[in-house]
Amino acid sequence: MRIAHFSWEYPPIIYGGLGTFATEITKKQSELGNDITVFSLNERNNHETNEKWNGIEVYRPKTLDLTSTFYLFADQGLRAWGDNFKFFADVISYNTMSASQLVNMLVRKEGKKFDIIDAHDWLGIIGGMIVKKELNIPLTFHVHSTEVGRSVGRGSHAIKDIEFEGGQFADCIITVSYAMKDELEKLGFPTHKIRVCWNGIDPSKYNPKNVTEEQKQQLRHNYGIADNENMIFFIGRLVTVKGVDNLIRAMPYVLQDFPNSKLVILGIGDMEWLLKEMAQNLGVADKIVYRYEFISETERIIHYEAADCVVLPSIYEPFGIVCTESMSMGKPPVVGATGTNGFKEQIIPDGDNQCGVHINPHDPEDIAWGIKHILQDKKNALWMGKNARKRVLDTFTWEKITKKTLEIYKEFL
């Protein structure tokens, strides 16, 4: 198939799970013999407008700063974005200029053909809608999360409207978990269009064998974690939906039974100072190490291997690729499992195939229970970790995920 992706994030611009997903699925689609074209953001117009990346054609049209122009037509809701209004304007500019290049240059001038458009989240659906209208090409709306979920019920009405209209206009909606399918149906997305396809992982990359004992010990020592201490590890954006504040509230309960433990928090977000103040007030500040960075994949892999317990207490998580990464590294994660949460679909919480622990992410005592469940029996944790990696190999490889995605495309061609 000849597939065009509209993805706000694409190498070298990756901010999180969406960028990782777009990178891996396009690479695998190409390896399986499809012709892939990607339209992505040209951050600060510092990148080539057209280049090959792993055999994939990537276009990054230079955008115009339309902030002041769009501001003339913006309602009060959009004007309330303040300095962040430029971000909204840049999204619209990227979408319209990318769609124009695909329609007018690649198709109408150069004669290139496409079979299907895959537009990712509200950040790419506008471009996809323009192309579908102009060329009558089937459009897939790949929904990785929603504004309602990301903002815990608040958020931008403009983004909510874009997502809703994208769902009505698209031929197909692919979302990343059954929990997300339920959410989309409640938001009024057409049920008959929605298909579920989980995200994936490269288990050859996320493999405990790729990390040496020396690398593992060096990382622990860099964080001041002694050989007799437990390393509890959180990775994710420092925002409300990731539940990291409740994780800090759980630490006093953990330390009652496991005083030789430290929590490493790795991520960036607007809760940095709040988390430090909370830890200080709870008397656990000396037991928490913060690192406010977006680190490389190689270093991330070492973190998983170095950890004694990986905790991901999200209160909203459409899929959660960090859980899959942890599982692939043979670590049984402690995960939030209430509400819209894809973690609970990845983790089998009991029985012969148990590969992690489900907790209520709103309850610090329950989070602490999950952590202690892992720490109290290292042999059992090792057994669960082996089950976790086996589940990844059986279910969450990019090859399996990509083939299912291609099957969904074909259903709507």
Structure description:
With 413 residues, the chain is α/β, with parallel strands linked by helices. It folds into two domains: 214 residues, Rossmann fold (3-Layer(aba) Sandwich), CATH 3.40.50.2000; 188 residues, Rossmann fold (3-Layer(aba) Sandwich). Helices cover 46% and strands 15% of the residues. It contains 17 helices and 14 strands. An eight-stranded mixed sheet has the order 3-4-2-1-5-6-7-8, sandwiched between helices. Strands 11-10-9-12-13-14 form a six-stranded parallel sheet, sandwiched between helices. Strand 10, helix 11 and strand 11 form a beta-alpha-beta unit. Helix 5 crosses helix 7. The longest helix has 25 residues. The termini are close together. The model has no long low-confidence stretch (mean pLDDT 96).
Short description:
It contains 17 helices and 14 strands.
Write the layout of secondary structure elements.
Blueprint: E1 2-6, H1 17-31, E2 35-39, E3 50-53, E4 56-59, H2 67-71, H3 76-79, H4 85-109, E5 116-120, H5 121-135, E6 139-143, H6 147-150, H7 157-169, E7 172-175, H8 178-186, E8 194-196, H9 213-222, E9 230-235, H10 244-257, E10 261-266, H11 272-282, E11 288-291, H12 297-306, E12 309-312, H13 321-328, E13 334-336, H14 343-346, E14 357-359, H15 364-375, H16 378-395, H17 398-412
Parallel strand pairs: 1-2, 1-5, 2-4, 5-6, 6-7, 7-8, 9-10, 9-12, 10-11, 12-13, 13-14
Antiparallel strand pairs: 3-4
The percent range for helix content is: 40-55%
> Quick one: CATH superfamily of the largest domain?
Glycogen Phosphorylase B
Mean pLDDT level = 96
Low-confidence stretches: none
CA radius of gyration is: 22 Å
Under CATH, the topology of the largest domain can be stated as Rossmann fold
Question: What number of domains?
Answer: 2
Shape: globular
Order of strands side by side in the largest beta sheet? 3-4-2-1-5-6-7-8
Q: Mind describing the biggest β-sheet?
A: 8 strands, mixed
CATH class categorisation of the largest domain: Alpha Beta
CATH architecture of the largest domain: 3-Layer(aba) Sandwich
Number of DSSP strand runs: 14
Helix tally?
17
In what range is the share of β-strand residues?
5-15%
Q: CA-to-CA gap between the ends?
A: 10 Å
Structural class: alpha/beta
